[in-house]
């Protein structure tokens, strides 16, 4: 059974990543209305006739979401049943189902009724939480398949609350990034790392202010991660799980920042935008796992 769960878990985790990236493509290409104000049907049809480019993009996103959703549901329920004696597994499984349903409902409501940029930014944030809980659940399956217990250790308050701070801070940065996209503020600052040729632009109103706030928050997050990696490297290098996860998170964040700069220099290139979302998605999964790990009782 554990082998089956591993296969399902990998498929579910890859599936939710594809859902997130497909959503990025929908937003980037302006295909949110590609199926009209209809859900789950597309222009009132199961298979749209004479589809436009926008229709194909939106319909593909829905198809991938549906297939991934079924896989996620099966994997999550089976994992919860097989490892029901582990309360943490049940909690994460419930969270995975909750965030999957929440982001799906928000997406459907956005199609039928339309939503503000602030709400659509939350849609991306909940999708990220859906991925993170699935990734954690997949890690649990691999751990429990070997030793029938989850790894644990005693950590200092600095590590525990430092990881929790990074989790909250990262989510804020992710939300601001999604808000930048949904408000069309990606080019609110010309150039990088300066904004319109200035360290602090004279006019911080409108799209410039939104983009600049996201950049400042991202830089602050990089500093926070640098401090956390220094702390772990100095005092917890012997804990390979924590150390390797921290190093991976740091470099994924660096890659995300670099691709963000490429997005600006390339004039919002689609592939750079996809990579920008991909790296932050992977990083957030690692971070969610680390938070649960450091707070687990030894």
Question: Key features?
Answer:
298 residues, mainly alpha, 2 domains, 75% helix, flat
Tell me what the structure shows.
- By secondary structure, this protein is mostly helical.
- The protein has 2 domains: 1-150, no CATH class; 154-298, no CATH class.
- The chain has 8 helices and no strands.
- It has helices at 2-28, 53-82, 87-113, 117-147, 157-182, 206-235, 240-265, 270-295.
- The longest helix is centred in the middle third of the chain and has 31 residues, at 117-147.
- The protein is flat and about 55 Å long.
- The two termini are 27 Å apart.
- The model has no long low-confidence stretch (mean pLDDT 90).
Q: Total domains, how many?
A: 2
Largest sheet: none
Shape: flat
- The proportion of strand residues reads under 5%
Quick one: how many beta strands?
Answer: 0
The secondary-structure element order is HHHHHHHH
Q: Helix/strand/pairing class, anyone?
A: mainly alpha
Distance between the termini: 27 Å
Poorly predicted regions are none
| Helical amount | over 70%
Indicate the radius of gyration in whole angstroms.
Answer: 20 Å
User: How many H/I helices?
Assistant: 8
Q: Let me know the average pLDDT.
A: 90
Question: Topology, pairings included?
Answer:
Blueprint: H1 2-28, H2 53-82, H3 87-113, H4 117-147, H5 157-182, H6 206-235, H7 240-265, H8 270-295
């Amino acid at each position: 059974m554990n082998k089956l769960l591993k296969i399902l878990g990998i498929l579910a985790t890859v599936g939710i990543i594809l859902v997130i990236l497909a959503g990025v493509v929908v937003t980037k290409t302006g295909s949110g209305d590609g199926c009209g104000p209809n859900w789950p049907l597309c222009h009132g049809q199961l298979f749209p006739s004479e589809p436009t480019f926008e229709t194909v993009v939106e319909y593909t996103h829905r198809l991938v979401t549906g297939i991934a959703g079924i896989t996620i549901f099966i994997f999550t329920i089976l994992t919860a049943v097989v490892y029901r004696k582990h309360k943490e597994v049940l909690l994460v499984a419930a969270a995975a189902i909750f965030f999957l349903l929440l982001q799906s409902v928000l997406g459907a409501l956005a199609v039928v009724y339309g939503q503000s940029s602030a709400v659509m930014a939350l849609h991306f944030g909940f999708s990220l939480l859906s991925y993170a809980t699935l990734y954690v659940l997949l890690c649990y399956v691999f751990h429990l398949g070997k030793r029938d217990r989850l790894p644990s250790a005693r950590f200092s308050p600095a590590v525990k609350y430092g990881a929790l701070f990074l989790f909250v801070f990262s989510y804020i940065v992710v939300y601001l990034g999604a808000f930048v996209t949904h408000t069309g503020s990606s080019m609110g600052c010309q150039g990088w790392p300066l904004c319109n040729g200035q360290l602090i632009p004279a006019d911080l109103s409108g799209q410039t202010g939104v983009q600049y706030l996201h950049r400042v928050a991202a830089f602050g997050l990089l500093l926070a991660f640098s401090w956390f990696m220094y702390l772990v490297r100095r005092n917890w290098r012997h804990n390979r799980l924590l150390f390797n996860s921290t190093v991976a998170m740091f470099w994924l964040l660096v890659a995300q920042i670099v691709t963000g700069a490429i997005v600006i220099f390339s004039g919002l290139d689609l592939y750079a935008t996809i990579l920008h979302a991909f790296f932050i998605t992977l990083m957030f999964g690692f971070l969610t796992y680390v938070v649960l790990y450091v707070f687990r009782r030894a």
